[in-house]
Design a protein that fits this description.
about 290 residues, alpha/beta, Rossmann fold
């Protein structure tokens, strides 16, 4: 299924972008190499409203670095230039202390594998509570109530028991739900999900993505879904940016992805296996078609 889900009420501005939340202008991320600076993100620009934006591409295309740059998580010797405006604030002008108040509270990020994101020596409940206390000063009873509410919001009904568990005692799918609960408990305006289901069994992936989609819609948030899976992104997003070598080579509505014109996007789509697959071999990208590397 290549169409965007029904029921989207996104209000779009010029060029299909919904206004008002995040503006990225000529974003560039470089790292030094023996051969000179390598541009892993090269002049990226886009606008994001309270909509669901998918960023797709191969490994090394710059999509994950884009998410980290928005949160100002690129450390030296990496160098970031360009404009980042979020809720009317220039993120590039904020001090590190001011930026820490934005991370989590206003922009949250769900990483690929909860096994490497959760603290192994803290219970699930302690970690969700810590995410809340970092940005607010609620009383003990309110913390317990909101941790319970957060776990239930990601459809973990036995919240009190789960809150007492350690990360090694939960499954991959449950761990990713816990990460989502932790990232959403401060009630951010924007969620960046970086390959949130790549470490999960196929049978669990759709369940976690539907859950995330429901929460984003219910809370009126913006979402940036980073993935290499074009059909998946087309199903859960309103708009898609296709990245190659740090640049956007195609931008389209999710429902129009099947009409993509760039040879790189066409090549990626052609390489996706089908349920009724009859081809003896999947095609590979013909990079000479656009001068790619």
């Amino acid at each position: 299924m290549m169409a965007s889900p029904e029921g989207s009420e996104m209000r779009q501005g010029p060029e299909g972008a919904a206004p008002g939340l995040l503006s990225v202008r000529d974003l560039t991320v470089t790292f030094p190499t023996p051969r000179g600076p390598a541009r892993v993100v090269d002049g990226l620009s886009f606008e994001l409203g309270r909509e669901r934006l998918g960023i797709v591409g191969e490994s090394g295309s710059g999509k994950s670095m884009t998410g980290r740059a928005i949160l100002r998580l690129i450390r030296p010797p990496g160098r970031v230039t360009g404009g980042l405006t979020f809720e009317g604030r220039d993120l590039t002008s904020l001090s590190e202390r001011q930026m820490r108040a934005v991370r989590g509270a206003r922009i949250s990020m769900v990483m690929q594998d909860p096994r490497y994101s959760l603290n192994p020596v803290m219970t699930v409940g302690e970690q969700i509570a810590e995410a809340l206390r970092t940005h607010e000063r609620p009383g003990r009873a309110e913390v317990r109530a909101r941790v319970r509410e957060a776990l239930r919001s990601v459809r973990l009904d036995d919240a009190d028991r789960i809150a007492r568990l350690y990360p090694h005692e939960v499954s991959g799918g449950m761990g990713q739900r816990i990460m989502i609960a932790m990232m959403l408990i401060p009630k951010p305006a924007l969620l960046i999900a970086d390959e949130p289901t790549s470490a999960l069994d196929v049978s669990i992936q759709g369940e976690v993505l539907r859950l995330m989609d429901d929460l984003v819609r219910a809370r009126g948030m913006g979402l940036i879904l980073i993935s290499h899976d074009l059909p998946l992104v087309a199903r859960y997003c309103d708009r898609i940016l296709v990245m190659h070598a740090g640049r956007v080579v195609e931008s389209c509505a999710a429902s129009e992805l099947h009409r993509a014109t760039h040879p790189y996007t066409r090549g990626l789509l052609a390489a996706v296996p089908r349920m009724d697959e009859t081809r003896a071999e999947l095609p590979v990208l013909d990079r000479s078609a656009w001068g790619g590397t």
